[in-house]
Amino acid sequence: MTDAAAAHARPTLADVAARAGVSASTASLAFSGSGPVSDATRERVFAAAKALDYAGPDPRAQSLRRGRSGIVGVVLEERVRAAFLDPVKIQMLDGISEGIVPLGAGLLLLTDTGEGAVSVANAPVDAVALIGCSPRLAHTVAQLRLRGIPMVAIEGHAGDDIIEISIDNEDATRRGAEHLRELGHSRVALVTLPLDPERTRGPLTPEREAESTSATTSERIAGARLVFPGIGGVTAGASDVEEGRLAGLALLADPETRPTAVIAQSDLLAAGVIRAAEELGLAVPADVSVLGFDGVRVDGLAPYDLTTLVQPSAAKGRAAGEALVQMLAGEHPEGTCFSSVFHRGNTTAPPAR
Amino acid sequence: MTDAAAAHARPTLADVAARAGVSASTASLAFSGSGPVSDATRERVFAAAKALDYAGPDPRAQSLRRGRSGIVGVVLEERVRAAFLDPVKIQMLDGISEGIVPLGAGLLLLTDTGEGAVSVANAPVDAVALIGCSPRLAHTVAQLRLRGIPMVAIEGHAGDDIIEISIDNEDATRRGAEHLRELGHSRVALVTLPLDPERTRGPLTPEREAESTSATTSERIAGARLVFPGIGGVTAGASDVEEGRLAGLALLADPETRPTAVIAQSDLLAAGVIRAAEELGLAVPADVSVLGFDGVRVDGLAPYDLTTLVQPSAAKGRAAGEALVQMLAGEHPEGTCFSSVFHRGNTTAPPAR
DNA sequence: CTGAAAGCGCTTACAG
DNA sequence: CTGAAAGCGCTTACAG
Q: What residue spans carry the Basic and acidic residues bias annotation (chains A, B) (predicted)?
């Protein structure tokens, strides 16, 4: 039989059972190992399977019958590449895969754009981790809730009944801001993460803040306000170096209005602000201090050692994965809020004058 | 009805059909949009679905019935984190997700360790991309072949009948080696990628090379031999900076035997060799020249600009994804071999003496 | 320890 | 345009 022909007529459990001279039920038991089957019978079944090139029970049929697919979905708020370019997300992903080990489940990457045949609305997943504070969260959550799929949100309030794994965004930012104040800064500006579903770039305004759909962004803004009540700034269109650079240029170009310190809401954005400062001939930290958030090593940023708030990204992922395992076991786990640690690098210093 | 109760009795297509007063077939047609259904009927079905909180056809039943799961597997040769730490793999992954867009399929992350309930042996995937030149390839391929699942291998010969997406490992390395020879180097050593399934660290010996299970490693060694016939060196236990550092220390510690140039088989390994040189008080490239492979930006390596062979990682992934799409459409695509581009950075120079 | 039966939820020819 | 029927491949009570 050629490969092509074989592909058109793969053997089924029934075929194997027939050849082994047992019932399908018995053959099934032999494969699952979950029932009492005599050694002789088991071996007859396996021999038949081998003879027929049977690769084992079809997972599609198993999951229909069992009501479980053995797959955990991870909803990214953007295309796969973008998520993979963010070190924080990678660490969370790895943490999740660690957390769900007891499930032996695979990780299915999903985006919340709703494109493609396989989406949040119909992916064959048993549970889902929502990564990142996506503005589109509400819609995603509604679909998942309708489907009765357990979910946990990492960063972001997805609904009162949905477990949240978060960090101390407000307090951590407050501590970073206090560090700047202690250095003597008073003219400080923010470079925030996206605020709305369109990820609109631009100045931070009370209107836009009021309409924020990103809890993380809002919380970190609030933390900065605790120290610098009137602080303003700009919103980036994503968390990456280029967006940080654009924001930095907008903030630092005019010597008249230039802040002496910038609070960026991610390390990638902070790195971009540093790039912008360099382009404008400004020294960091002599002319501008830059504070980040995340505590990831940013590619090519050396010899700068970013002053930042280090958050436990992998631990967050692991906690999320563990929570899903518990929910699938019928338990009702609590959410977790982790603490970030202030790291003093070499990108902050007292203001020049 | 409480959420918990709802979770125990999710409505089915049959329920929706009954409420809409139509047959299940018609309701199915209404949802799939693939059959002739009158507007009035369709709306009645949707109204019933809404009233019952029906989230749409169960993907598990659909995939059993249709024989397709809408999921493409990506087999990583190591744990998720390790793959995500390798920029080359991330670029390939992103390329794959781009290549399978026409399928609208999700990407399921799998490792070839065989652990967990969902593995290569039973994952509900329609097709699979094998990433990286894993030594465990043979076993993975055998399982997939038995299951009749179309696959494509990125880097690595998986079998005569399996499409390969590769690059010019031998020729690219040859060009890099020639660059070193032209600079005047003659005492050159290799730091290779793993050679065997155990990823054994240690000196390169004819025996070990003969038993290599990694085509990529062997091809790159062969390319170096075209220029430096007797070249030896050490094998790293993985492609990361720390392994490169260990290899570099082994190679550079003894001033008597120290090479004037090192050919590393990945940029990450090259970065590690540079770190080792620094630790030993050697200057790069003044005391030791270092050549990499991949053309990725290595975190924290600035101001070094690695001399390397730049390979088109994302394009490889895309080609792999596209090949799978074609195979699923019943076509028989060819493999592709891409070319790498030599990049002259600042880590190679004529030997000191 | 083994088998007959029912059914997981859907889609797809096939009739009408 | 709509419906009745069969079946995708398996697992799970239930009997024996």
A: 197-211
B299 closest CB neighbour out of A73, A116, A299? A299
Provide the CATH number for the domain around residue A40: 1.10.260
Domain membership of residue A204 as a residue range: 169-311
**C-alpha gyration radius of chain B:** 26
Residue A15 has pLDDT above 90, yes or no: yes
Give dist(CA A49, CA A86) in Å, integer.
Answer: 45
The predicted model gives B202-212 an average pLDDT of: 95
Rounded distance, CA A169 to CA B167, Å?
A: 45
Dihedral, CA of residue B81, residue B84, residue B87 and residue B93, to nearest 10: 150
Amino acid at residue number B29:
L
Measure CB to CB from residue B94 to each of A6, A10, A80 and give the nearest one.
A80
Same domain, B125 and B184: no
Q: Is A60 on the interface with B (CB under 8 A)?
A: yes
**DSSP type of residue A297:** P
- Identify, with chain letter, the residue nearest to nucleotide C3 (CA–C1'): A23
User: What are the tokens at B79?
Assistant: 């744990």
Query: In this structure, what token pair is assigned to residue B214?
Result: 């990694």
Number of domains chain B contains: 3
Chain A contacts in chain B segment 13-32 (CB below 8 A): none
Type of residue at A214? S
Does residue B249 sit within a domain? yes
Angle of helix B24-32 relative to helix B13-20, nearest 10 degrees, comes to 110
Distance to chain B for A247, nearest Cα, Å: 23
Residue A276 CA, nucleotide D7 C1', distance (Å): 64
Q: What is the mean pLDDT of residues A92-107?
A: 88
A-B interface: how many C-beta pairs under 8 angstroms? 169
For residue range A186-205, list pLDDT tens digits in order. Answer: 999 999 999 988 889 999 99
Comparing every residue's Cα with the C1' atom of nucleotide C5, the nearest one is A25
Both B174 and B304 in a single domain?
yes
Taking 80 as the threshold, does the pLDDT of residue A140 lie above it? Answer: yes
A71 membership: H or E segment, kind and range:
strand A71-76
**Contact check, Cβ <8 Å, B104/A118:** yes
Q: How many CA atoms lie within 13 A of A311 on its CB side?
A: 29
What is the C-alpha to C-alpha distance for residues A106 and B234, in angstroms, rounded to an integer? 35
| Identity of the residue numbered A52 | L
What's B230's DSSP letter?
Answer: T
CATH number at residue A75: 3.40.50.2300
H/E stretch holding A146 reads: helix A137-147
- Nearest residue, CA→C1' of D8: B65
Asked if the C-beta of B122 comes within 8 angstroms of chain A's C-beta atoms, the answer is yes
Q: What is the mean pLDDT of residues B70-82?
A: 83
Find the residue in B nearest to A51 (Cα).
B146
Dist CA A262 CA A257 (whole Å): 13
Distance CA B158, CA B145 (A): 11
d(CA A21, CA A44): 8
**Choice among B112-121, B228-237, B284-293 with the minimum mean pLDDT:** B112-121
Residues 69-98 of B with CB under 8 A from A: 69-71, 73, 79-81, 84-85, 90, 93-94, 97
Q: Which positions ≥6 away from A317 have C-beta within 8 Å?
A: A91, A92, A93, A94, A95, A96, A97, A98, A99, A129, A154
